[in-house]
Specification:
The protein contains 15 helices and twelve strands. By secondary structure, it is of the alpha+beta class. Strands 5, 7, 8, 9, 10 and 11 form a six-stranded mixed β-sheet that branches. The protein has a two-stranded antiparallel ribbon with strand order 1-2. The longest helix is centred in the C-terminal third of the chain and has 30 residues.
Length: 432
Amino acid sequence: IAAGEGIRIRSKGRIKPLVPVLGVPLIERVIHSAMEGGADEFYVITGYEGEQVSYFLRQLAKRLKVSITPIQNEDWQEENGVSVLKARGIIEESFLLLMADHIYDPAIIRALQEQPLKEDEILLAVDTDMNNPMVDIEDVTKVHMKDGHILNIGKTIDDCNGFDIGILRCTPTIFEALERAREIHNDTTLSAAIAILAENKHVKFMQTRGLWIDVDDENGFKKAEKALLDLLRGKSNDGPVSHWLNRPISARISKSLVNFNIAPTQISFSSFALSVIAAGLFALGTYWFLALAGIIAQFASIVDGSDGEVARLKYLSSDYGRWVDSVLDRYADAFLLFGLTWYVYRQYLSFWALAIGFSAIIGTFMLSYTADKYDKLMKNRIQKGIRMGRDVRVFLIFLGAIFNQAYLILIVIAVLMNLETMRRIVICQNDK
């Protein structure tokens, strides 16, 4: 359903379904999430500024290579059940009923489709977290559930024990219920139709605590942005520096970058370029250049997180993009460690400086080489401990540069990277 005008969110955009949340229009986020959940064909009920919404949907269908059919509701100012009725005669099998202004976890869609459903039933996804901070308690549709069925639904019911999250799996019986609600109660809201079906226990529910947000006003918009950015911090293979330092900063950078036409690979190359600049400054051989290089290297590490964040926020993730980012990271590591080695060598003119630098570079490459196999085998253990990765390595370079301890840090990196590689080899052998 994408027919409403959206007056309460007008400050963010004139046409509600096209209001961008972190660079992606609401209706596009809904369709992406549904596709991730298993949906492969869409009918979108348009209304206010229907021509512009339909044009966007046609372009989106080409881009995503999926069937999207706009259906104009000329009576879009009426209640939401009128929009649903526009699909009567077009959809004759079970279908998902979604709201264009709700952001949600695709896992909810997958779970909903796995539930059994009879021809005269509908299934409602319900949030049972009565303290969910994302819920506007004054505006949310409430439900009363018991023994697997919805018994009552509405915005003002007193005995509620869950919230309607606006995701339903329906059969064509919903159309008949809407017609009955109009004839009996002169009410064409979706809630009225659900209430009629609930009288005969034809409305089942599925409990969910997954992410969902009704982006109906400015407050909901802010909550949606925050929730999506918070999800970026949940990346399971983040190291401690990335989780506690880099990710909070890179998320703020990404929040701005999503509003521009910048590809994730462009961000990857920018991060790599900063690392090359830092390596060049290391080679100049004075403390102030050393310190500046350390700051730039750490900033490059932070920016390196933004390419993946922008890709995930704008649905631009690809295996190729991840591979290119990984290749550039290896080049950046080599430049940074070679630059630091050259700085140490110029200070001490020692063969050992070159040997330790070479050991640090080799250990770093071997650590990166073993990461994929180790992560797959040791996923559960990694979640319980500290992950030694690129974020820690670059942060050590930053600390060594700031405190003018380049030689010491080079030794630490050489020792840590090689010891961690050996440790992984032993652990993976025990878990083969």
